[in-house]
Amino acid sequence: MPFKPIASLLFLFGGPALAETHQADLIVYGGTSTAVMASVQASQMGKSVIMVSPDKHLGGLSSGGLGWTDNGHAAGIGGLSREFYQRIKAYYDNPEAWRQQTQEEFRAIPRSQSRNRPGDDAMWIFEPHVAEKTFDQYVTENKVTVVRDAWLDRENGVEKDGHRIVSITTLDGEKYVGEVFIDATYEGDLMAAAGISYHVGREANSVYNETINGVQKGRRDHPHHFDITGLKISPYKVPGDPESGLLPRISAEEPGKDGSGDHRIQAYCFRACLTNDPDNRIPFPKPENYDPEQYEVLLRVLQAGWPEFFRKFDPAPNKKTDQNNHGPFSTDNIGKNYDYPEASYERRREIIKEHEDYQKGLMYFVANDPRVPKDVQDELKQWGLPKDEFVDNGHWSHQLYIREARRMIGEHVVTEHDVNGLTDITDSIGMGVYTMDSHNTQRYITPEGYLENEGNVGSHIRKPYPIAFGSILPKKEECTNLLVPGAISSSHIAFGSLRMEPTFMILGQSAGTAASFAIEQDIPVQEVDYEKDLRPRLLADKQRLESGRKLKGLIFDDKVAELTGEWVPSSKVGAKVGSSYLHDKGARDGKSSAVYQVTVPAAGKYEVQVSYSASSNRASRVPVTISHAAGLSEVFVNQQKTGEIEGLFTAVGQYSFEKSGTVSITNQGVDGHVVIDAVRLLKK
Q1: Which residue in 219, 227, 414, 556 has a CA-CA distance of 20 to 30 Å to 28?
Q2: Three-class SS state of 654
Q3: Which residues does residue 623 pair with via DSSP β-bridges, in sequence order?
């Protein structure tokens, strides 16, 4: 059924047009990558679609500066999502796409190689305008009607008849009538206006029996903390003098008890697209309300010699970068977004402007303030805003990184147990592929009187995990014709994995598929038959629904090891076999050991591998002793480095075994925490 306006009246004598009512099978609210893929999928299934987009530019963050894709276990990305990145690759395989450098020059940059290898079928790095052009092509090719700059009337704009949405109305009075609706926004505005249950903030661990939700003062997964970088930064205007008052952007509140819930959400920033091409570069502008005192903490960090200011200037084609937060004081505007999810449009615009001024001011400060170390300042002066990006917005991104806002409480809530593969999901609509990644939520004062950040968690996953159909479905008693693939039903920490753009595209396509079946059969979205209809169609459209990855070889988990000394179970950091690993609490006393009895089904040579969760506080020379047919061999493993095999295992040699042997790990003579997880033997 084609898009059709039902009514269009004009005032006499050339007056303005009255608001119209428009009708289609599916109404998608949002202009994100999720919205595009939901709309395209439904159109390909023969449904009329109107995408009601509050944004002028389609693609959300994917066209708003995030060109360094968080693709994680990329093998789990399928369907239209993978096709998008394949289209990106096809674009850059054309030599004419390379204006400021050649593709060979770009590939020579070490950090580009992980996301732009010649043999890959997709490319995971791109410029913002290339992504936007690709999204525009999608909706044009699939004849999706797009209404831009159309904002839902959140107070009175959702009309329901019982448990069904009848129509939505935008602030300009335009009404959109559909059979099924999809909320594909980052904020979940349609979901909330329709009376669907949701949560804002961090749940306590106790809510879903999790371990890494809520306040996490003890987590040190990334160098986004002050103490992990060895910095002791005073929070006061006069260092060490509380009477002088606090510096800006520091909370005087208590951070809360570990594992407790609160109202705080991950910090936002812009994924700024910058360039170091002199012919395409505009110097960093000075915001009108620029205040150098806002960056006093950063100055103290830089003056202390912190060396990683440019660590997350991730390369993008044509001498550009996707700049992301890195370090204890960076582009994340910590603590300035708490009211954003529920805020009015006017208040949100104020928050977005404050974030823009903060981040532009930070760049201007480092590039111009004479107190900044000269080597850092000289390097930053080589960068600026690109003339050929965001040309209608002062060359600055039009999309703030909404890392987290509302999260629906739907038919199924995704938790850390789902992400770690511990939940039996039988209705997978796609794969989650990324680490549980939460950015900091607050900057506070420690009892010792120094600055610290809290909220950063980076818990690696061993493999892609299935996402339940129920996680995009509201409870049936709340609404029967709405799907929510953006503000998905999940806990805070699980959302840290789900919130990646490839996953949002996967969820958008699956939502469009489910919506189409509900429209065809005139049934509630909750009654779409997964086994009969949804799953076969998703697979036909190249969605990937299972990991397909089982660990090969003979696996001996830490649960079967013979232990001496004190070992503590944990699951907080890094990839792991099973649900947990053990560590020695950093004792370094030589009293803790683990002996794995390994048996083989056939005599022969086997490669022995060990797994552990890597982190900077691990020991750099962990002794591993292998008892094999020819005797004993000792090898040392650096547990600070991630395993080179499947991101999980490190090989410790090839040995012959007749029937059995042992692999022993101790904390004798080590310089950090020792972790034991699993031992694997692979037949050679």
Answers
A1: 414
A2: strand
A3: 636
398 three-state secondary structure:
coil
- Per-position DSSP letters for 328-379, written without gaps between them: SSSS--TTS-TTTTT--HHHHHHHHHHHHHHHHHHHHHHHH-TTS-HHHHHH
Query: For residues 429 and 668, what is the distance between their CA atoms, to the nearest angstrom?
Result: 47
Decide: 534 and 45 in contact? Cβ < 8 Å. no
Q: Which of 659, 662, 593, 606 is nearest to 633 (CA)?
A: 662
Q: Is the pLDDT of residue 148 over 90?
A: yes
- The residue with tokens 């001496």 is 564
Q: φ and ψ at 179, to 5 degrees?
A: -80, -40
Closest to 138 measured CA to CA, from 1, 44, 3:
44
| H or E segment to which residue 613 belongs | none
Return the beta strands (E) in 85-229 as ranges: 145-147, 158-161, 164-169, 175-183, 198-199
| Cα-based torsion angle of the residue sequence 484, 486, 491, 492 in order, rounded to the nearest 10 degrees | -150
The candidate with the shortest Cα–Cα distance to 463, out of 653, 649, 211, is 649
* Contacts of residue 119, Cβ cutoff 8 Å, sequence gap at least 6: none
Query: What's the pLDDT score for residue 115?
Result: 83
d(CA 405, CA 403): 7
Rounded CA-CA distance 662/561 in Å is 10
The confidence score (pLDDT) of residue 65 equals: 98
> With contact defined as beta carbons under 8 Å apart, do 197 and 409 qualify?
yes
Helix or strand holding residue 255 (H, E): none
Between the two ends of the chain, the Cα-to-Cα distance in Å is 60
pTM: 0.81
Q: Are 309 and 414 in contact, with CB atoms under 8 Å apart?
A: no
Q: Which among 543, 548, 403 has a CA at the least distance from the CA of 465?
A: 548
Residue type, 556: F
Q: What is the DSSP string of 500-537?
A: SHHHHHHHHHHHHHHHHHHHHHT--GGG--IIIIIHHH
**290-294, long-range: CB within 8 Å, 24+ apart, which pairs?**
290/357, 290/361, 290/364, 290/365, 291/248, 291/361, 292/365, 292/369, 293/247, 293/248, 294/248, 294/249, 294/358, 294/361, 294/362, 294/365
Of 16 and 315, which is predicted with more confidence?
A: 315
Cα distance between residue 376 and residue 358, in whole Å? 19
CA–CA gap between residue 498 and residue 502 (Å, rounded): 9
Q: Tens digit of pLDDT for each residue in 319-351?
A: 999 999 999 999 999 999 999 999 999 999 999
Per DSSP, the three-state class of 294 is: helix
What count of other Cβ atoms lies within 10 Å of the Cβ of residue 440? 25
